[in-house]
Amino acid sequence: MFGPGPSNVPQRILEAGSNPVIGHMHPEIFEIMNDIKSGIQYMFQTQNNMTLAVSGTGHTAMECAIFNTVEPGESVLSAVNGIWGERAADMAERIGARVNTIVAPPGGFFTNAEIEQALSKYRPAVFFLAHGESSTGVLHPLDGIGQLCHKYNCLFLVDSVASMGGAPLYMDQHGIDILYTGSQKVLNAPPGTAPISFSERACQKIFNRRTKPVSFFLDLSWLANYWGCDGKPSRVYHHTGPVTAFYSLRESLAVLVEEGLENSWERHEKVAEYFHAGLENMGLKLFVKEKKARLPTVTTIVAPHGYDWKEITTYIMKTHNLEISGGLGPSVGMVLRVGLMGCNSSKASVDMVLMALKDALKHCHKSKV
Ligand code: GLV
């Protein structure tokens, strides 16, 4: 599974998920949820009490973040340098926000000066940024942006679905107010749970709203109670938590804790460098020009000239039993995408992908133009 996710699920995590189903309100599941909360606090490098996992994928967490923090008529600014900024803008529009965007071409990113100019022009209540833009392969710099947002009295919302655990991110130090990720990328758990955390500033805004969030399922007051984050003595039934998905998520966080976050970041960086050198040796081009802005977890390769990218991905799946992917959203037709996340981030995986790509370029049809 070398696409942009889901990645392979190691036996240990699969086994955790195959334990017997217990009740979603049993004391034992609350203990498991408490462990998950601590694991997420470590992974996000945050002390936020309001830290939990949403029942759903990264998109659910994205909606949870936006639906809770934004009220109809409020201004939202979304940084669009790929599909995730587009989707955040779409979600905010659906709940009646006034949405503005700053747009960079696929493969590009924003300077702090550009961000500050837009914050000062639009005065948004929330600013959205994707840390790992999996559609274009960009790792967005974070330094100083949280401070800028706070200067303009704006909450800083960051999508780290594709980057979390694979590239340095310190939620509290970076001044991030709302951060989320997914279970199926570096964590190597099955898709279906999405860690999320809210700063004190974000909670202040959310719990002083004039209107109820549009979604009952994603209402943070309910979720906070289910996850024991609201200080109330007992938890009330809200929805039936996906208990076996919680087992797997807990195990995947334990794997990350055992390796250590810094070691995981370093491994992903080294493996990505090895992969990128191998691609360039083959004559392939990396889509993201600036080295420091290359996402170590999902690599975008310029679609080789003269080939049909779909024929390449199909050939590799059929002949080598490996998944790699084409572009997504604005990068469709422009790139091939290879994900090396969690247990898949190894030199052995890189060698497998490089061999499959070499073979595909030999066997797929090359047009004469
Ligand atoms: C999904 O996250 C993707 O990047 O394809």
Automatic annotation (TrEMBL):
The keyword Plastid does not apply. Signal peptide: none annotated. The keyword Transferase applies. The modification N6-(pyridoxal phosphate)lysine is found at K185. One of its GO terms (molecular function) is alanine-glyoxylate transaminase activity. One of its GO terms (cellular component) is peroxisome. Its cofactor is pyridoxal 5'-phosphate. PROSITE patterns: AA_TRANSFER_CLASS_5 (PS00595). It catalyses: glyoxylate + L-alanine = glycine + pyruvate; L-serine + pyruvate = 3-hydroxypyruvate + L-alanine. InterPro entries: Aminotrans_V_dom, Aminotrans_V_PyrdxlP_BS, PyrdxlP-dep_Trfase, PyrdxlP-dep_Trfase_major, PyrdxlP-dep_Trfase_small, SP_NH2Trfase/AEP_transaminase. Keywords: Aminotransferase, Pyridoxal phosphate, Pyruvate, Transferase. Pfam families: Aminotran_5 (PF00266). Its EC number is 2.6.1.44, 2.6.1.51. Coiled coil: none annotated. Substrate binds at R337. GO terms for biological process: glycine biosynthetic process, by transamination of glyoxylate. Residues 21-339 form the Aminotransferase class V domain. Homodimer. Belongs to the class-V pyridoxal-phosphate-dependent aminotransferase family. This is Alanine--glyoxylate aminotransferase. It comes from Larimichthys crocea.
